Amino acid sequence: MPNRLADATSPYLLQHAHQPVDWWPWGEDAFEEARRRDVPIFLSVGYAACHWCHVMAHESFDNPEIAQFLNDNFVSIKVDREEHPDVDAVYMNATQAMTGRGGWPMSVFLTPEGVPFFAGTYFPPVAGGGMPGFGDVCQALSQAWQERREEVVGSAGQIREQLAELNQVPTAADKAPTALDTLEKLGESYDMVHGGFGAAPKFPPSMLLDALLVKGDPTSLDMAQLTCETMARGGIHDQLAGGFHRYSVDAGWVVPHFEKMLYDNALLLGTYTRAWRRTADHDPDKRALFERVIFGIVDWLREEMTTENGGLASSLDADSADIRGAVHEGIFYVWNPELLTDALGEEDAEFAQKVFHVTSGGTFEHGFSTLQLRTVSDWERLERVIARLKEVRAGRFRPARDDKVVAVWNGLAIDSLVTAGMVFNQPEWVEMARRAAEAVWTVHRVEVEGVPTLRRTSRDGVPGESPAVTEDFGALALGFTRLAGALGDAQWLERAMWLVDQAEELFSSEDGGFHDAAEDELRFARPRDLTDNATPSGTATMVAALRAVSLLSGEQRYMERADQAARTTWSTTAAMPRFAGWSLADALVMEEARRGLRPAYVTIVVDEGDQLNQLVRAAWRMAPAGTALVAGPVGTQGFGHLFEGRGQIDDSATAYVCRGMTCFEPVTSYEELKTPLWSRC
User: Residue 178: what are its φ and ψ, rounded to 5°?
Assistant: First the structure.
C-alpha cells in the first residue's frame, strides 16, 4: 500500500511512496501525530540524485522489520532537501555540530517539538565497518525515550541552546573586504597545479571564480582561468554531452561523483561566459576550450533538462544499470579500450584513448576510465569521434532524471542563458531563458487566500506545497531583470520588482540583511547563513537582484536596500572569502565604484526587433561587472527614464552609458563603446 507520499510532487518522495515505512511529509500533521502518540520523530532528508540515499533506502527503508520498528516507535518524516532547503539547513547545522560532519542522507531524531537529540548521516542496516547498524540505533533511541525521557529532553534543550550560539550572525562590519586582503587568503588554499581551492573532494568553485573575474588583474585571472581550464579538461566535465558532474573525488578533477545538477551547470554557464570574456584574443586555444564548454552546457540543458512547459529539471542521477540490470554509480559515463574499439574501430579507438586518456588499468573502477580531454591537434576528427561515442552511449541505460522544477535554479539558469546568448549571438538561448521564465512565473506564482505568493517547486506543471525561500525570490528577480534588458520587455522588470518587494516583506532582518526563509513554527530555528553552499547565499543573491533591478528601473531605494544587506556580509566575506564568492564579487565591484568605476546602466536604442545587433553584442561582451544593459526601440516604456529623450544618431543603433549622475556622450560603433563603458568618473 502506498504511504502518505503517494501524491507528492517531489520525485525523491515518490521514490519512497511504496516503502513499508509509514512516511509523513514535512508538516504540522506529522508533528501533531508525534505529540498525540508521545513518540519521537525520525527525520530523513535527502534528494533524488543522491547515491547513498538510494543505498540506505534499499538497505533499511525497504526492510520490513526495520520499517515496522520505525512505524511502532517513531513518526517518520521524509524531506526532499531541494523542496525544503530551510529544513535541511537547520538540521544540517545540528548534525554537523553534533557529529563533526554532515551529508546526505541525513538522519536526525527529534522531540515532538522538533528539537534534535541525535543525528547522523548514512547508517548501514546492521553494524559493520565501525558504524552502528540503523536498526540498533533506532532501538537504542526508542528505549532511551521510553526509559530516560528527562535525560533525552534535557539533552535536546542543551543542544538547542548551543546551536543558538553557533548560529548567531556576525555583526555587520564597518569596512568592506578588499581585493588585496582576500587574494592573500585565497592564495593559501589555491591549488597551483590543478586549479581550484583546497584538497579533495573538490567542488566547482563557480561563485568564487565570478569574484576573481571582477577585476581582471593577472593573479586573479590566472587563478580563475587555470581552474576553468583544468575542470574543462577533467573527468568532472562530460566530454560527450556537455555539462558538469557534482564534484571530483580527487584533487585533479579526474573522477567525479556522477550526479549532474542544474544549479552547478546554471552557475558554470555564467562563469565560463565571463571567463571567455576575460580571456585575451591572443589565447585562441583557451577561448575555444571555454566556448566548447559553454555550448556544451546549453546543449545539455536543451537536450536533457528541458521539461515540456519549458522549465528546467533539477538533476540526473549518479546511478544507472549495466546490461545485467545491476545498478552502479557512473556506469553510464565510463569507458575502457575494448568499449572504444567496439564503438569506433581500431584506428579511431587508438586516437580516442590518447585524447581522452583511457588506459588499460583505468582511472575509475574495474578498469574503466572517465574521459579527460588532452591536447588535440585534429578537432574535426575529435568531433566525429564524440558524435559516435555519444550515439553509442545513448543506447546504455540512462540515469534517472529528477524532473521537478526549482525556482532558484531556474532563475540562475535564466540569468546565465541570457548572458551567454547575448554574448555569443544565440537568440535561441535567450528564447530558452524566456520559456523557462514564463514556465516558473505561470506555475509557481499562486494565490493563497487571495494573496499572490511564490512556490519553490513544481512538477508536470503542478506547483508543490513548499513556499519559496529567499534565494528563490532573488535568483528569479535577477534572471527576470537580465531577460528584461535583453528583450527590451518591461513586464519582466515589473515581475522582478514584485519579487524583490515580496522578499523584502517576508525575509528582512533587523540588521538590514535577509533571513534565508520565512518564520515556521515547525523548525526549532530560523535559518540564516551568509556563506555560499552549492548556490550563492540568499543574502548575496538578493543583493545582486536588488542592484540589477535598481539600475534598470531607476529606483534608488533598491540600491540603498542592497547596500544595507551587503554590509551584513562583510565580516563573513573578509574572514572566509572562499565560501562567500558572490558577496566577495559584490564587494569588489563596490571597491571599483569607490575608485570611479561605478556600476553602469547602458541604454541602447535600436530598430524594432534588433536587440542582437553588433553594438548590443559588443556591450554585453565588454561591459564591466555590475553593469545593467537594456536595448529597445525609441520610446520603450517601463525602464524608468532610461529611454526618455534618447533616439538614434544617423539612423544607427546608439548606446547611452551612465554611471550614477554622470552620463557619457552617446556612441554608435562598437569601436567607440569601450571608452564610456570603462571610463571612471
Answer: -110, 165
